[in-house]
Amino acid sequence: YRRGVETDLARALVAEVQSRTRMRILEAGADLVLEGTITNIEEILLSEGEDQAIRESTLLVTVEVLLRDGRTGEPIRPRERYSERESFVPGIGEGVRSARTEALRRLAADIVDGLGGG
Questions:
Q1: Distances (CA, A) of 69 to 3, 18, 27, 30, 109
Q2: Residues 63, 110: Cα–Cα separation, whole Å
Q3: How far apart are CA 56 and CA 58, in angstroms?
Q4: Spatial separation of the C-alpha atoms in residues 17 and 23, rounded to whole Å
Q5: Phi, psi of 88, rounded to the nearest 5 degrees
Q6: Cβ atoms within 10 A of the Cβ of 114, count?
Q7: 2: Cβ–Cβ under 8 A, 6 or more apart, which residues?
């Protein structure tokens, strides 16, 4: 698990909701509450060179989300799981940080699509 991933995902979700839906983000008193848990972050080696240097890798991020009624706390639908993977090639300057940013952006888009916002 990498520190700060949950904050980065929350920011990506806020950006997606604000840009693609008519929903508003509230601190309290919301009609809907979206809860999420990052269940897996895994870097998978895809290929390495003869010198054991990583040639290509992929980052897999999985999150479970639950949409609740903000007034009653009751789930509106069953818990859903979303996964995204993003490949990167360290040898050409790509890194795990940029792969993580892109995977989280796509996860946020997938989640908003699941809410009916896309």
A1: 29, 20, 15, 9, 21
A2: 11
A3: 7
A4: 7
A5: -150, 155
A6: 15
A7: 41, 100
Per residue in 6-37, pLDDT (tens digit) is 999 999 999 999 999 999 998 889 999 999 99
Q: In the chain, where are the structural domains located?
A: 5-114
CA–CA gap between residue 4 and residue 44 (Å, rounded): 20
Tokens of 71: 């007034």
Class level of CATH domain 5-114? alpha beta
**CB neighbours of 75 closer than 8 A, spacing ≥ 6?**
66, 67, 68, 69
Q: Which residue has 């950006």 as its token pair?
A: 15
Query: Using one digit for the tens of pLDDT, what is the confidence trace for 35-56?
Result: 999 999 998 887 766 776 667 8
CB 57 within 8 A of CB 43: yes
